[in-house]
Design a protein that fits this description.
Elements: E1 16-20, H1 46-59, E2 63-67, H2 77-86, E3 90-95, H3 102-108, E4 117-123, H4 129-135, H5 140-153, E5 158-164, H6 172-182, E6 188-192, H7 199-206, H8 210-226, E7 231-233, H9 237-252, E8 273-276, E9 281-283, E10 294-295, H10 301-307, H11 309-316, H12 342-349, H13 361-367
Parallel strand pairs: 1-2, 1-8, 2-3, 3-4, 4-5, 5-6, 6-7
Antiparallel strand pairs: 8-9, 9-10
Helix pairs in contact: 1-2, 8-9
């Protein structure tokens, strides 16, 4: 959590960048936040990305998180990785895993590619094809699982991300057993499907209902106890359960709030990173693709980081009290609240001066609260 006094201490450059290398993907998942219309924008060519990596490295950016689309659809991916490495940066890869084969594993071992690799995250949304493939195209589970196993067997730093949705909410214990016990991952992370991208249209088929959210809360709380420290979340049911547990403990001790809260302060990323879309557009976050602040090759990264209008609008949300938001003026939990992810708020309302109802602790406490410890 970024506290208010840090608003005047923004670093000279972001520590990291989220870089969507391509809008193309070999899958069409039902909840993907990188909406279909993004694919029509066109990918930057190899030389443009290499020039950009040189600029990013020169100003002191340390890490890039590479995603898409699907990064392994780019035939020049390993040339791009070498460009990142040449400019003294580290990288992570987010992938659906289906295109990873022995050839990709061998390529990742060449040069300094393994040395500079922080993490590869593979999306797994079920313990079997019968579940996973309900929210992803047919036959994707077996390919994703093969890719995940190859990465693990080679000793590469690999994890998985489970997006909790209507199709897999009752399969979560089986998914945990598959990833942690069978495959032997150290850990995996979770979030939940929200109304971004393709889920704007197919949301009724993938988004959790109120009752399914309760099921997810109870299940994730139990799994967190059964696998201590091995399941993480920054959003979704487990994150809410963990935050609720913390708030309950503070209130039981007579506390009335938490430092750095009580304003629209949910997003700390805007003080440490920003994003670049596959067409070169610079945005505060890849889940806010319409908030374009410039374009690589034309707009200096360090300038847009400090002076970009859109990212500073997001930073100024930290100065907006929760009690100034309609419906929150007399909330007893306002000093514990951060307002929720601004991208979720913007997707729901088309504006930023609002609170995500999915992050409302008052509503959460009344309807969903499940203690992490029994």
């Amino acid at each position: 959590m970024i506290e208010r006094h840090q608003l005047n201490a923004i670093p000279r450059v972001p520590e990291s960048l989220d870089v969507s290398l391509t809008g193309m993907c070999n899958l069409r998942c039902r909840y993907c936040f990188y909406a279909d219309e993004m694919a029509t924008l066109g990918d930057l060519p190899t030389d443009s990305w290499l020039t950009f990596f040189a600029e990013a490295g020169a100003i002191g950016i340390q890490r890039l998180t590479l995603s898409g689309g699907e990064v392994f659809t780019r035939p020049d991916l390993f040339t791009l990785l070498d460009g990142i490495i040449e400019n003294r940066m580290r990288y992570s890869i987010l992938t659906n895993g289906t295109l990873i084969s022995d050839d990709e594993i061998a390529a990742l071992e060449e040069g300094k590619r393994r040395l500079r690799l922080d993490l590869i995250q593979v999306s797994i949304d079920g313990s079997s094809s019968a579940i996973h493939d309900l929210s992803r195209p047919p036959a994707s589970f077996d390919r994703a699982l093969r890719g995940l196993r190859l990465l693990k067997e080679d000793g590469l730093p690999v994890t998985a991300r489970v997006t909790i949705n209507r199709h897999n909410v009752n399969d979560l214990p089986n998914i945990a057993r598959l990833l942690l016990d069978d495959i032997g991952l150290r850990s995996f992370s979770t979030n939940s499907a929200d109304r971004f991208g393709s889920a704007r249209c197919s949301g009724q088929g993938v988004l959790l209902s109120t009752e399914e959210w309760r099921i997810a809360l109870r299940t994730m709380a139990k799994l967190s106890r059964n696998y201590p420290g091995r399941i993480s979340a920054t959003a979704g049911p487990l994150a809410f359960a963990e935050d609720a547990d913390r708030i309950e403990g503070i209130m039981a001790s007579g506390g009335t709030g938490l430092p750095g809260r009580g304003t629209l302060s949910a997003c700390g990323g805007i003080f440490s990173k920003m994003a670049v879309l596959h067409n070169g557009a610079i945005v505060p976050c890849n889940m806010l693709p319409t908030m374009i602040m410039g374009k690589i090759g034309f707009t200096p990264l360090d300038d847009v980081w400090l002076h970009g209008r859109e990212i500073n609008v997001l930073r100024r949300r930290y100065e907006t009290p929760i009690t100034s938001i309609a419906g929150c003026t007399d909330c007893r939990y306002a000093s514990f609240c951060t307002g929720g992810c601004p991208a979720v708020v913007y997707a729901r309302y088309g504006r930023l001066d609002a609170v995500d109802p999915g992050s409302c602790y008052k509503k959460y406490r009344a309807e969903n609260y499940v203690p992490l410890r029994p």
